[in-house]
Amino acid sequence: MSVTLENPKDMTDSAPEIAQALRSLQSVATLCATTFTTQQLKVEYRVAYSAGAALPWRLLEVHYRKPRNDDRYTLRRMHCFSTSECLRRSIQERAKWKACDQQLVASYLVKVRASSDGHLRGEPDAQGEARPSVDLSELRPARLELRAQICVTRPERVVDLLNS
């Protein structure tokens, strides 16, 4: 669903469509955000519509460190889109990229396990001693390339919001 408004009267005429689009987009965004949440990081996405703005469809992205003892965050960013459909595609591409990224990391970890003595570094060995953790930095170029291939719907504007 894509809603484009030309004048303020259109806002009242299409308010139910905008509200439905916001509900639908928020549902998709919430599911997507959960795929990015880890034991160390909580990701929240909020969808908004700004009537009268050149780029009215917004995705607010907030990252919090865990455990979360206060309301401080590590990242707050607003992605602005001209249509609800562009916003929806962007969210769907993020979710697809995350799933593909998780598969890439998992296959890398299988290779690491196969090339070692059967234990991942970071796991305890037979004596209960931990090994150094796996370094995923060598995957960074492949992960960035994967994201560039999948996440092709870019916001028309990105605004970094100040930390408080």
Q: Return the string of H and E elements.
A: HHEEEHHE
Helix content: 40-55%
Question: How many separate domains make up the residues?
Answer: 1
- How far apart lie the N and C ends? 35 Å
Query: How many helices in DSSP terms?
Result: 4
Strand coverage percent: 15-25%
The whole-angstrom Rg is: 20 Å
Q: Describe the main β-sheet briefly.
A: 4 strands, antiparallel
Spans of 5+ residues with little confidence (pLDDT < 50)? 1-12
How many beta-strand segments?
4
Tertiary shape: globular
Give the rounded overall mean pLDDT: 84
Tell me the strand order in the biggest sheet: 1-2-3-4
Descriptive notes:
This protein has one domain (8-160). It is 43% helix and 18% strand. It has a 4-stranded antiparallel β-sheet with strand order 1-2-3-4. α2 packs parallel to α3. The protein has 164 residues and is an alpha+beta fold. The chain is globular and about 60 Å long. A hairpin with a 7-residue loop joins β1 (41-49) and β2 (57-65).
Brief overview, please?
With 164 residues, the chain is of the alpha+beta class.
Relevant terms:
single chain; 164 residues; alpha+beta; four-stranded antiparallel sheet; 4 helices; 4 strands; 43% helix; globular; disordered N terminus
Topology:
Layout: H1 8-13, H2 15-36, E1 41-49, E2 57-65, E3 75-81, H3 84-115, H4 140-150, E4 157-160
Antiparallel strand pairs: 1-2, 2-3, 3-4
Helix pairs in contact: 2-3, 3-4
